[in-house]
Design a protein that fits this description.
Number of domains: 1
Strand content: 5-15%
CATH topology: Rossmann fold
CATH superfamily: Alpha/Beta hydrolase fold, catalytic domain
Helix content: 40-55%
Number of helices: 12
Structural class: alpha/beta
Number of strands: 6
Distance between the termini: 44 Å
CATH class: Alpha Beta
Strand order of the largest sheet: 2-1-3-4-5-6
Order of helices and strands: HEHEHEHEHHHEHHEHHH
Length: 264
């Protein structure tokens, strides 16, 4: 194996090649009054990191500091929760007056069980990214690309595929849902497999997560990572008011994008 191929192989099986955390350069003892913890998931890459770093500057102007941990571990969801818990402790996010979370798919699967065992009294908001399409991607990877998926993500992607969603029930926390309405290229290429799991339900209540508000965005999972700035006005509004903007789309899609894209 050439040295270049060896480096690539090493990068897919160790955390060292994961995206670095995005953390404000201030001492933990001087934490801001308001912080947003973003929990990215599978598919978060260099372009997503670049978008989040740009978002951090915008959020800071709005008085909100952005924290994006590298928390997903190859060993599974239990290890990932332990790493996230350590990050929260190390960054002393319990000292922030008002803590908010935006959780991508794997982020929700990691965060919710943790909140069942660890109290965060300063937690005010959790916004979940959900997708009827992308939530089938881990199962597709498990069943059809098991070894390549393990090489890239370890056991965590299989844990997400095989673990039922555990909803957050916290009356004192405002909960929002952002629903992606477009499939990724990964899911689109495997449309038949994705559809074999049953019909796609875009109804907000179908996600099994109690919520205060729910909106739909014309993006795929991959697009949301790099276009997160377009969703920031709604994220900011929900943080401030517990509701998304009045201009946000609250109407589920009328058609199944995978059905529309199928060849005749």
């Amino acid at each position: 194996m050439s040295s270049a191929l060896a480096i690539v192989a090493l990068c897919v099986v160790v955390e060292a090649c994961a995206r670095p955390s995005i953390t404000p350069r201030v001492a933990p003892s001087t934490r801001p009054d308001e912080a947003l913890l973003i929990l990215p998931g599978f598919g978060y890459g260099a372009k997503g990191e670049q978008a989040f770093r740009a978002l951090a500057a915008s959020a800071r102007r709005d008085g909100i500091e952005l924290f994006v941990p590298n928390y997903l571990m190859r060993g599974g969801l239990v290890d990932s929760r332990s790493k996230l818990q350590a990050y929260l402790r190390r960054q002393q996010l319990d000292r922030v007056a008002r803590l908010h979370v935006f959780a991508f798919l794997a982020g929700g699967w990691t965060l919710n069980p943790l909140l069942q065992t660890q109290s965060l009294p300063n937690l005010k908001t959790v916004i979940y990214d959900r997708s009827p399409y992308q939530e089938r991607a881990p199962r597709i990877a498990d069943e059809t690309l098991h070894f390549p998926a393990w090489l890239r993500y370890g056991s965590t992607i299989f844990d997400v595929a095989r673990t039922s969603y555990a909803p957050l029930t916290a009356p004192a926390v405002n909960i929002g849902i952002v629903v992606e309405t477009k499939p990724t290229a990964f899911v689109r290429k495997r449309a038949a497999r994705a559809r074999s799991y049953g019909p796609f339900n875009f109804d907000c209540d179908a996600f099994g997560q109690p919520h205060n508000d729910c909106v739909y965005i014309d993006m795929s999972h991959d697009e949301l990572y790099v276009r997160v700035a377009e969703v920031w006005p709604d994220i900011r509004a929900f943080i401030r008011t517990g509701r998304f903007t009045t201009a946000a789309n609250r109407t589920p899609p009328a058609t199944d994008a995978l059905a529309v894209s199928r060849p005749h």
